[in-house]
Amino acid sequence: MSQRLSLSQAFLFLLRRDLLLAVRNRAEYAMPLLFFVLVITLFPLALGALPELLARIAPGIIWVAALLAAMLSLDSIFRSDFDDGSLEQILLSAHPVAVLVLAKVSAHWLVTGLPLLLVAPLLAEMLGMPSEAQPTLLLTILIGTPILSLIGAIGVALTVGLRKGGIILSLLVLPLYVPVLIFAASATENAAMGFEVSAQIYMLLAFLFLSISLSPWATAAALRMSAS
């Protein structure tokens, strides 16, 4: 990363670079979205024509699928940079590594999390989720998927130097994903039943702010450990 760039320019440069790489590798980055759609589509086939049951468990189905889709795409955050040596350049940059990490995580969310947000209403309608619960579902996905990317970045940074780190990565991040899954699915379920959802939304926002505050620094430290 050039020292002539300001911090904001370096952030935007790295963000744009990762987005361009994602466009060039569309097939690879489309897999999480395809997985998300396929998993949700299989539930009606497995449970049969039980619309009331599908509508009741729709929040859990969508969020479990979103969590698994997020885990499927985590390795792409730093793997290509580690393989081609770009990661060392990022670590040697004059700019704070945590800010550059945040740029890469932002690009990852735009490529993998945002498509889930866009396609979720169609899948919720397919499962028969009540229309009054769908805005809450979208809000939880909007808040929750960045948390998944931020937490997952720490696990990826710890395992990026391992040849077969996928299983270890899953073991590291899956327990940390559980609170997001619980509060997000609970908020959507409460909205479907007409109950108050502010407590769950506030908890998700707290998780988001905490992740933004701590995850980039922890990820930067983990990357230095993996690269050493």
Structural account:
With 228 residues, the chain is mainly α. The chain has one domain. Helix content is 82%, strand content 0%. It has nine helices and no strands. It has helices at 7-24, 26-47, 51-73, 79-84, 86-91, 97-126, 134-159, 166-192, 198-227. Helix 1 packs across helix 6 (97-126) and helix 2 (26-47) runs antiparallel to helix 3. The protein is elongated and about 55 Å long.
Helix content: over 70%
What's the total helix number? Answer: 9
pLDDT below 50 for ≥5 consecutive residues: which ranges? none
The total number of structural domains is 1
Shape descriptor: elongated
Number of strands: 0
- Which percent band covers the strand fraction? under 5%
What is the string of SSEs from the N terminus onward? Answer: HHHHHHHHH
Instruction: Give the N-to-C terminal Cα separation.
Output: 19 Å
Query: What is the CA-based Rg, rounded?
Result: 18 Å
Instruction: Describe the main β-sheet briefly.
Output: none
Q: Quickly give the structural class.
A: mainly alpha
| Overall pLDDT confidence | 88
